[in-house]
Automatic annotation (TrEMBL):
It comes from the Eukaryota. Transmembrane segments: none annotated. GO terms for cellular component: peroxisomal membrane. It comes from Thielaviopsis punctulata. Keywords: Membrane, Transmembrane, Transmembrane helix. It is a multi-pass membrane protein. This is Mpv17/PMP22 family protein.
Amino acid sequence: MGLSVIAKVTIQAAVISAFSSILAQTITASQSGQKLVLNYVTLFQFILFALLNTPPNFLWQSWLEDTFPSHHPNAQETDTAVSKNGAMPKGKATPKPQLNIRNTIIKLCLDQTVGAVVNTLLFSLTMGALKASMTPLPHEAVSAPSAAQSLAFLRSGHAVDAQRVAWAPLWEAACAEFWPILAAGWRLWPLVSVVNYSLVESVEGRNLLGNLASVGWGVYINLLAAE
């Protein structure tokens, strides 16, 4: 039995998130003139976030498409193509669906307001909680961990501790970075959404295009999270 569409999209997002994290770490090392030392903790955090965040986003996009379809049948072409007995003549191509401009605008507005607000807050809170819960204690900390040390920390059995998370400061930090992240997203995602809704008909295809755009966005977010 093959994987479901949502599972394929989630795995795809995790792979792209991993690539973005590695690329961001490479850029950071290059800018500082240092040799790249892969931080597996950071890599793990972004892969985990992609695994958690992608399914609800897929469902959100599916709901938007089901509620406000981007395309509808071209009634005039359909009526012309259908024969007298109600069947499509042999060799006659199925009429191409027409773009529904009203629905496309509604989806774009909902995605870039409700969707963007929720996604931005979830990113800040989830990544903040992951970073706080996976911050080594003083006796565990290494100022410049090697790739082997960061991997060993992940495999130690106590890499994640929810008691290390202070939710009040975390919420304050999420609020502080909310508008900068949202504003940065508005420079990219509206264009991606317009292309998605007007040219790509399947939700899977839209997620693929979104994930490809996420490479650049993911690098930005990784660099932001590293500050």
